């Protein structure tokens, strides 16, 4: 489903992604963990060219792109393969929840409005927000806004959904309602790549966990291998720091 080879990304003189190689199977849920500044979100944004890589190839569902030699049509085709769910929702503030979900269907897919509305209403029901269809983002909680953004991502029927820290902007009591929707998607064999700091969630839903640090993939494997039984000192140090931070918060 997703194949990345020798992917590089620089910001000025800083090498943010250093020779990334990655394989994700259809229906696989992959959680990417690691410290701040490790390149997790940049990797996600390179997959759909929100950030322009400085080298390597990206292949998603038979669409292959050489990041040093491609045309705008190639970029468009690659972007059509995925949908992104952002940390801060990125909803249109002047549009209702339903209008946010159907916008891409009408504008990009050229779908008739009545057909788009039917799909949009079904998707809002799927994420538990059918009663909020006519509400504007400002009247919704953070968890509800994030669920609208997930419905919007599902609307375009992507081959994979990319989640960039989908719960990090939420109050703790709202986190679970978003994670529950993602759990349901995982149960339906949706291909997902999730940058997250929720270790328990990663253990529950991910088929594969990737630990990144300093722009490199340090370790990857099952949640049990990486989170519970890692023998890599860098991974162990990161996980210990997380536990220490949780202890401080709980006190």
Number of strands: 10
Individual helix count = 9
H and E string? EEEHEEHEHHHEHEHEEHH
- Percentage of residues in strands: 15-25%
Intertermini distance: 44 Å
Q: Give me the Rg, rounded.
A: 18 Å
Neighbour order of strands in the largest sheet:
6-7-8-3-9-10
Characterize the main sheet: 6 strands, mixed
Outline, from the CA principal axes? globular
Which percent range fits the helix content? Answer: 40-55%
Q: What class would the helix/strand composition place it in?
A: alpha/beta
Q: Could you please describe the fold and organization of this structure?
A:
The chain is α/β, with parallel strands linked by helices and about 250 residues long. Helix 5 (about 140-155) packs parallel to helix 6 (about 170-185). The chain has nine helices and ten strands. Strands 6-7-8-3-9-10 form a six-stranded mixed β-sheet, sandwiched between helices. A four-stranded antiparallel β-sheet has the order 2-1-4-5, with helices on one face. The protein has a domain at about 90-155.
Summarize the structure.
By secondary structure, the protein is α/β, with parallel strands linked by helices.
Helix and strand topology:
Layout: E1 2-11, E2 14-24, E3 29-33, H1 40-47, E4 55-60, E5 63-66, H2 72-79, E6 82-85, H3 97-107, H4 113-126, H5 142-155, E7 160-164, H6 172-187, E8 192-195, H7 199-205, E9 208-213, E10 216-221, H8 223-228, H9 233-250
Helix pairs in contact: 3-4, 3-5, 4-5, 5-6
Protein name: Amino acid ABC transporter ATP-binding protein
Keywords: ATP-binding, Cell membrane, Membrane, Nucleotide-binding, Transport
Organism: Peribacillus loiseleuriae
